[in-house]
Recover the amino acids of this structure.
């Protein structure tokens, strides 16, 4: 099929999946859907938007969600599976206060987070941004204290190997191992009762950044459920290094790699103040 688009060019459309359908009685030909399409696969034709490359659609739903008259449908992200926006945007003071209230929690009560509440917490991560809407994250929840202890011991072994191999981080790791092994303080796992690992496909080159976005959503959402979290940096770094003993301990499939780790629980203490941070460092170039 050939279409003449707004630029005056004739475009041959490969109608492979027919993902875009238009209600021509509704369409006002504003072109907004084409302007917001991150894959640049929509062009404006005489009768409205035209998909010029179905295979490049990333199923983000922007085109459907932005249409001011509801004239466009995308079979990969139909409007029937979308929720309407029903509340106003938070004012900036409320949003600032909420985001500053987030704390990294390392002390928890003895109460375990149920599978149901853990699922509710992880559900928000589905809506975090991912590169090219790749998503593709998986979660492994460890609730067993003995397994968690084996994980922290495994990470300590990895640190020792890094020290022996003269890693640039060896001096830092030596201090950590002194606290963990000599002083008997679990600075690696923080006496976690529940650990969550984030996994992704090994071939997903944006897996780490996707995980970081998802964890940011989880950390901000957790307090609304009465939960606290913190990123387990030592365990996460070991996992991202693809340390074989840790892979075997967690029984991670060969096609996957662990890219994130956090602990979760019910906070033992409440914070009454909002600590400040370093002043903003920014340079504007015009």
């Amino acid at each position: 099929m050939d279409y003449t688009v707004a630029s005056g060019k004739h475009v041959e459309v490969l109608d492979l999946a027919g993902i875009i359908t238009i209600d021509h009685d509704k369409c006002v030909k504003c072109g907004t859907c084409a302007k917001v399409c991150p894959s640049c696969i929509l062009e404006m034709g005489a009768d409205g938007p035209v998909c010029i490359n179905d295979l490049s659609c990333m199923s983000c739903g922007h085109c459907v969600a932005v249409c001011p008259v509801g004239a466009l449908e995308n079979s990969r992200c139909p409007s029937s599976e979308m929720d309407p926006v029903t509340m106003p945007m938070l004012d900036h003071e409320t949003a600032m206060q909420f985001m500053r209230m987030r704390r990294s929690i390392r002390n928890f009560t003895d109460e375990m987070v149920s599978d149901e509440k853990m699922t509710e917490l992880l559900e928000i991560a589905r809506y975090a941004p991912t590169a090219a809407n790749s998503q593709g994250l998986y979660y492994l929840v460890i609730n067993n204290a003995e397994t968690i202890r084996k994980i922290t011991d495994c990470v300590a072994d990895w640190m020792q190997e890094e020290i022996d191999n003269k890693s640039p981080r060896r001096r830092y790791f030596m201090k950590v191992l002194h606290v963990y092994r000599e002083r008997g303080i679990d600075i690696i796992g923080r006496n976690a009762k529940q650990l969550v690992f984030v996994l992704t496909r090994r071939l997903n080159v944006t897996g780490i950044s996707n995980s970081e976005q998802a964890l940011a959503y989880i950390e901000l959402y957790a307090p609304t459920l009465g939960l606290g979290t913190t990123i387990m940096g030592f365990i996460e770094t070991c996992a991202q290094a693809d340390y074989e003993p840790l892979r075997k301990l967690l029984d991670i499939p060969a096609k996957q790699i662990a890219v994130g780790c956090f602990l979760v629980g019910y906070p033992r203490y409440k914070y009454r103040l909002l600590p400040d941070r370093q002043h903003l460092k920014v340079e504007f170039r015009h």
Q: What stands out?
A: The beta strands are 2-4, 10-12, 20-22, 42-45, 48-51, 72-74, 137-142, 195-201, 228-231, 256-265. Residues 145-164 form the longest helix (20 residues). Residues 37 and 63 are 6 Å apart (CA to CA). The chain has a mean pLDDT of 93.
